[in-house]
Every structure is written in structure tokens, then in C-alpha cells.
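Weekly structure sync, notes
Attendees: PL (lead), two postdocs, one rotation student
Agenda item 3: pending single-chain targets
PL asked that the sequence for the first pending target be pasted directly into the notes so everyone works from the same version. It is reproduced below exactly as submitted, 418 residues in total.
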Amino acid sequence: MITKLFRNASVFTPQDAGKPKAGADQGRIRIYERGALLCRNGRLAALGSEEEVLKGLSWDDVDLEVDLEGRCVIPGFVDPHTHLCFAETREREFSLRLQGMEYLEILRRGGGILSTVRSVRRTDEEALFRATRDRAFAAMRFGTTTMEIKSGYGLETATELKMLRVIRRIGRETPLDVVPTFMGAHAVPEEYRDRSDAYVDGILHEMLPAVVRQEMARFCDVFCEKGVFSIEQSRRILAAARQAGLGAKIHADEVHDVGGAGLAAEMGAVSAEHLLAASEENLRAMAESGTIAVLLPATAYSLRKPFARGRTMIDLGVPVALATDANPGSSYTESMPFVFGLAVLMMGLSVEEALCAATLNAAYAVGMADRVGSLDVGKQADFLVLEAETPAGIAYHAGANPVVAVYKKGERVFGHAP
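Predicted structure, written out during the meeting:
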């Protein structure tokens, strides 16, 4: 048994009460101004004031002691929405958007997601793995210790399975915990142009059964949006996924209010994601169903769109999580600190609410809260040491990486010991 003591730290963490935090509760966190963490075999054995943790502790039992020199410690970030598995970037498309072309117009012309689909289809699996691994390590350097990665750049069975194999391999060959999500319903591929119902049939009868049979994913996601997949098509896909044992997620109301948030509530989806155009009526339905709103402020920033109404959602009682949406088109960033800062400065979340959104609620959004998302005894010792006095430093020091060290299961996987 390996025992490690981390002391002389300012510890900030949400406290897990067995469900996502919502409303006023999302802003309540525990603070230990001179705190300590005791880790045994990669899990938290004790957390509290340094005096409490040291009481009754035999120094002979401590294999490593680390003085954190008063720095701020928070749980490792959980990034619950990424498209990190892709082959090539889309800088030319970025320039088109700067010139005023709308995102859905680029998609209609065969760009956007469809451009990435073409590059992923022609890229061999090993090359795709190396590119994805590099981005996963970049995310880890910004403090992400657990992440979801979606497929959805294959849009055919063989390539979707190739992506999911890569995604699962990232979880095996990096320190990160990785949650794979099947998203064959990310767009309608070019070979099915104007035949979206036929493509949905293919998802239901071929693609989804193959994913389930090979146990390649934990969740199924669908892009429910005007010009992509309708409410009824999305309902069919998610109902089949749930029946097959996968959790339901929805890209909902990103550009238009088509009722995706309401469908998420109706289906009992774990999360609805984006929600820039979601109506208040459907947000209230999400609050009643307990569906988590996964908000992606870096996407609104990149697309130069109004930000999702995070403040309103919290006030309505919707549990809110934050994610990067890391992808080559609409949000090319792996930085959860950047997302945290946008949430505080542009979406009206308090620092405490943003901390919960980027850790505990995000962990619930990917079904990992039993292990990660908060510094609670028995959970994995996944935590960050920040060059800051409080989590406010994440937003305050704009454009910088505040992470001094990243610990995963009690092991330092990035940075240096203070």
C-alpha cells in the first residue's frame, strides 16, 4: 500500500451528495484554507484541515510527503463533451466563417463535419490514434483528467468502429479516464444526401447493433438540429440506443430552437448539449427531469454567437456542466481553463458554480461521478495544483495555463512538485 500526504494547500471542492448539483446548491463548495489530502493506492483516504488529517497519522506509514506551499488544489477537470478524434484541422473553414459564412451553410456545401468525415475515412487507424493521443495529452496539461470523446466523423460502420477503437485505446494508453460515445448521427453523409431517413435506418439496423455487439460505447449522441436530424429521427435513434443499454445524449438547439431540449427531458437523457437557442419552457422541463445542461462557451466564442444562458439555467434549477467541445471546426481548443473563464466572464456563472460545472456535474454527465469529479474520500485522487490562491485565478489570469501539476490516481502525470 502506497500512502502519500499532500499538505499546506488551499483546497476547494464540491461535495458529492449522490446527484448533480442544481440551483443554489451548485454554488456551494467546501473550502479548507490550510488543507491536506491523504492518498492510499490512488484513492483519497482523508481530506480536511491539515490538523484533522495529521491527527493520529503515523509518519512511518507515509511513503511520500508533498508540501504544496499554500497553492490552490481543486478536483481534476472532467471534460464531458469532445470530438477529439479527428485527422485534419479546418483553418480554411475558419476563414470563411470570419468572412460571414454561416456554420450550417458550410455544412450544406459539403464542408464542416463532412470535410472531417472525408479525412477520417482516408486516415489509417494508427495515424488517427497518434493525432488523437497528442490532443489528449494537450488537454491533460490544461488539467483534464477525465474526458468523453465522441465518434461521428465516420458516418459509416467501419469508420465509426475505427474511431471508437482509437477512443478506447486513448483510455488504455494515456493516464486519462476516457468515456466513449457513439455519434453516428452527427451529420447525414454525402452518399445519403436528401435521404436522411434511409441513413437513420442504417444507423438503427447496422451501425448501432455493431457498436453494441462489440461493447464500444457507453453513450449514444445525436445532432438534433434543423437540416441535420429531426426530432422524430432523433427520438428513434435514442430510443433504440437506450433499449440496447446505452445512455442518451443530445446535441440540442445549438443554432435553432427545434425542441431538442424538450426531447432530452422527454427521453430522460443524461445530458443535452449546446442549448444556445433552447426555450425557457424546455429548460424548465430539463430541470424537472434532471437532465444536465452541458454548455460549450468556447463554441459560441468561436462561432461569434450569443452564449448559452447559463445563469438562467442555474436559476431555473437545471444542473449545468461545462465542456470544451474540442473539435476541428467550431471549437478548436483543449483548454478547460479557457472554458471556465468564459463561463464566469461571459455566461454569468460564479466561480463556485463554474468549479462544480467543470468537475462534479461534468462527471455526472459522463456517468463517472462515483469515481471522479470531487475530492471525496473513496474517490480517485485526481486533483490539480494551481498557481493561484483560489479557483478565481483560473478566470482572472486570462489566456494562461494556471495548472502547476496534474495528479491522476495520486500520481503526478504533468508538471512538477511545488
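Discussion points:
- The chain is about 35% helix and 20% strand.
- The radius of gyration is 21 Å.
Action: rotation student to compare against the earlier draft before next sync.
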